């Protein structure tokens, strides 16, 4: 069991107890709301458990549970329901997507890494923050990247995917965050920014917009695998933490993947 698995199980147990005893009306209300959107009971509990984890961390691990603050938190939370899609996503689909990226968009060559420094930094700094705040492992980081890659291919192909057997709700929620920095169709602020450089309503521009995202995500995956082979499961985050100031990343918040130069590359 990974640290992430342990944390998830801890918060799932708390949510189950709240629902069983009906001790937190806000929890019960949101649980029913999630169910009503087509999410299974098990996944609804997992999603609420992740919300509770975020709430606890935002409140600096205070010992006493504040019912009113929890209600306020849930009332203002921007919910993203992960409703199972039509096609099951699995390890085979991971490989299919990576082959498609290499075939259609190529790879970042070793002598080109500096050219993509800003874009790679936006992804790797984001993952490092997730490692620091949510204790994801490199294994879970790879899953997050694969989910984002597949969501972008789903956008292109107009598919919907089912991640039920692939990842838990916390991992899907963390993937939402990574997607926010690189998918303008999921982030209105990024949409507005990128609209200065490309017509986002023109669907024929998909490859032009997302080529850089695909090859950068694939490059980070390669880096994670390389570090795992060389230095074990903690190797990747140990390595990038030498070059990225984690406190600065947390203070500054997420960085957009796209700069004013990205689409020119």
From TrEMBL:
<protein>
    <submittedName>
        <fullName>Uncharacterized protein</fullName>
    </submittedName>
</protein>
């Amino acid at each position: 069991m990974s640290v992430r698995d342990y944390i998830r199980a801890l918060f799932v147990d708390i949510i189950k107890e709240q629902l069983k005893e009906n001790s937190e009306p806000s929890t019960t209300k949101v649980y029913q709301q999630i169910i009503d959107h087509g999410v299974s009971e098990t996944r609804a509990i997992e999603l609420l458990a992740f919300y509770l984890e975020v709430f606890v961390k935002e409140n600096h691990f205070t010992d006493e549970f504040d019912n009113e603050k929890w209600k306020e938190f849930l009332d203002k939370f921007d919910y993203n329901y992960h409703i199972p899609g039509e096609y099951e996503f699995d390890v085979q689909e991971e490989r299919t997507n990576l082959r498609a990226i290499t075939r259609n968009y190529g790879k970042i060559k070793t002598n080109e890494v500096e050219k993509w420094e800003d874009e790679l930094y936006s992804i790797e700094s984001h993952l490092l923050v997730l490692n620091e705040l949510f204790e994801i492992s490199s294994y879970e980081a790879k899953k997050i990247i694969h989910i984002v890659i597949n969501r972008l291919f789903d956008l292109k192909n107009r598919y919907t995917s089912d991640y039920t057997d692939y990842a838990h709700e916390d991992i899907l929620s963390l993937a939402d965050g990574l997607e926010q920095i690189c998918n303008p169709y999921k982030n209105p602020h990024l949409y507005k920014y990128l609209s200065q450089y490309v017509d986002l309503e023109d669907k024929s521009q998909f490859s032009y917009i997302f080529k850089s995202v695909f090859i950068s995500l694939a490059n980070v995956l390669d880096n994670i695998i390389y570090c795992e082979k060389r230095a074990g499961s903690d190797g990747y985050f140990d390595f990038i933490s030498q070059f990225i100031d984690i406190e600065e990343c947390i203070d500054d918040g997420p960085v957009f993947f796209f700069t004013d130069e990205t689409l020119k590359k």
